[in-house]
Design a protein that fits this description.
By secondary structure, the chain is mainly alpha-helical. The chain is 47% helix and 10% strand. The protein has six helices and five strands, in the order αββαβαββααα. The strands form two sheets. It has a three-stranded mixed beta sheet with strand order 3-4-5, sandwiched between helices. Strands 1-2 form a two-stranded antiparallel sheet. Strand 4 and strand 5 form a beta hairpin. Helix 3 packs antiparallel against helix 4. The longest helix is centred in the C-terminal third of the chain and has 48 residues.
Length: 260
Amino acid sequence: MLLAALLSATALAASPQQPPKPEAAPAFPSGTQAVVLDVVARDKKGRTVSDLRPEEIEVLEEGKPKTIIGFRFVERAPVPPPATPGTPAPAAEARRHPTLVTLVFDALDQQGRVFARDAALELLKTESRPDLLLSVFYVGNRLQLLQQFTTDRQALAAAVDRACSVLDPRGVVPGAATTDRVTSAANTANDRAQAAGDAAMAGGGAAAGPAAGQAAVEAAMANVELRAVEMAQNLERSQRGNSSLFALFALARQQQRLAG
């Protein structure tokens, strides 16, 4: 019995060991049952549409409409006020849900700059919130960034002052005083020519004819000056309008990528 046991043990020890079979890699099946999409709907005036219905929107995937199985309105809660005076709200919460406001100043006359500056500074006096960030741009020959998004009201006020102190770089056109002067001169010359012509028609003597002719020439010259001033102003308005619109379109196209 002992010999047989030893032989069996020797035979087992001499036989080569079989390598262990590799374990199969675990497989985890997956599938997509639903996709959650965030939708922000606004009307023509930029106001949030809160009564939008599922049948009023369409979701496409590779050009094919998908079935909407759930739709609900979610309103972001405002940033809670500080627990104690002087304690700021959590910065992380403010960064996750910012409210962005951009102030864009166009090239204005002296009165317009004063009005725009007063209005902007009055806006900056409103309650300071950590989630409210403002930026300042100026539209001239090109769009200029004067202050990037910040909550620093002093920096924003300084940028507003710079925007409202910039002289129009797109050229000087006849102002209101010049327009009034040229218009008055043209009206006076026209009235004088009309009176001289009436006198000549009524037989006012040998001098009436040359006087009427001279008055007519002066009226024509005054009217040419008036039309030149009006043309310059119309061209300037068109140029300013196109420059401002193109700058605003470019700014809106870039900022539409920002949340808030």
